[in-house]
Structure formats: structure tokens, C-alpha cells
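ESCALATION

Customer reports they have been waiting on this structure for their group meeting. Please prioritize. Original submission:
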Amino acid sequence: MHKMIKLGGSLITDKLVEQSFRADVMSRIAHEIAAALPSLTQPLIIGHGSGSFGHFAAKRHDTIHGVQSAEQWRGFAEVAFVASQLNNLVAQQLWREGVPVMRFQSSVALTSNDGVPQDMPLDNIRQALKNGLVPLVYGDVGFDTTRGGTIISTESLFTYLAESLEVSEIFLVGEVAGVLDDNGVVIPLITPETFGQAQGVIKGSRGTDVTGGMLTKVTDMVALVQSRPGMTIHILDGLTEGVLQNALMDKPTLKTTIRAS
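Update from on-call: job pushed to the front of the queue and completed.
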């Protein structure tokens, strides 16, 4: 079994300002992951969104809706370039804290159909996990059999990996303490049965997000636990010190948990 951490683009970048990396936030997050790593009994996969790097470029070129013309293909390559720049910055911070990450660029190997990942060889990721490395993936462009090219969000990629690998827990780390109710109080548990009630209080993303924001993320994760009933997903705050480390180490902390029942 494996654990997966997804660092939101709005957490590690300022999504209101193009290509603005929050180095201080990422440094602390990397420190918390490194501190928790020795106590983990399951291999770890880390992913992150593209934030103000990929989303600004993708919106300019409308990449998510398809890539056909020469200009659109040039835009497709631009999105891939800036997304990889952010990935390099994230990897640097993790390495500085001693987390042995290995970067995996999904656009090199993954193909999708109408935005849904269909095929990606995973033997190298499995080998990395087997040998104590931490695969690092990220939101990226993707070659698509219907659209030509598109955007593959980290959630879509995580869903594909979770359906192909044995994953017990996913930690979605963002700017908020969890999914909030009408009074601003964190909803501690969401199941497929209670999701309809929660939908009305989930707010949209702050800043530019071509992949849909919080509602899309929660919808995807509810669908995932329905298809993988043994999986648990947590939505938690990465801006508050210690929250991620405590969650990884199974210590009590404020968060929203999504599970099948």
C-alpha cells in the first residue's frame, strides 16, 4: 500500500500573480514531510499542482479544451515548460530537507482520451518506490486522442495512479483547513451519501485555475473512494505549521476526511 500527498497550486504559489513561487511555504512543507518520513510504514508519492505557473499559460492558450493549430501547439509546449520549472523548484526544496524525490514528467509517457488519462507505464514508478525513492509528479499537459492535447490535473493523475497502484491514503494539502459549512466550520467527514449536502458550501478557487477548483477536486475524490472503498482521503491546511506532519503521523489534527462510508 502507498500514501500520496498532493500540494495544491494555490498553496505553493500565489495564484493571483503569474509564476510566483512561495519558497517559504514549500520549505516548511518539505521539512514536515522529511520529519514524518521515517515513521511512515508505507511508501510515499508526492504530487503538486501548477498554480500560477501552468494555469496562467494554459488559460492564455485555452489548452484544456484542445490543441490543434501550430499556435496552440506552441502554447502547449509553453505550459509544459513553465509547469516543469515549478516542479524543479519543488524538488529542490524537498531535496534540501533530505526527501529522496525522483521527478516523473507525466506528459512524456501519459496519453488521455477527452481529458481522461488512459495509459501510462508505471514500471519505473514502481521501481522507484521499491527502492526507497519518492516519486514526484505534477499537473502537466498531455497528448490526447480526442483533443490533440489538453491539461492533465494532478487530481486526474492521482486518480489514475490510485486506480493502478495500491493506495491507502491521499492527503490534499491546500490553503484551507478542510471543506467548510455555511458557518465556516470544517466538515470533519464527507461520504458519497453526505456529499450532496456539502456541495452547496464548497467555494471556488481563488485566482486562476483552469481545472475547476475545490468543487471539482472534492467531486473527483468522492468518485475515487466510491471506486476504491478501502481508501481514505484528507483535505487539510498547509499554511498552518504542523498540520501535514501530524496528519502523516496519524496524530489528531483539523481536516476533512473523505471515505466511502
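Sent to customer with the following note: The first strand starts at residue 2 and ends at 7.
Escalation resolved.
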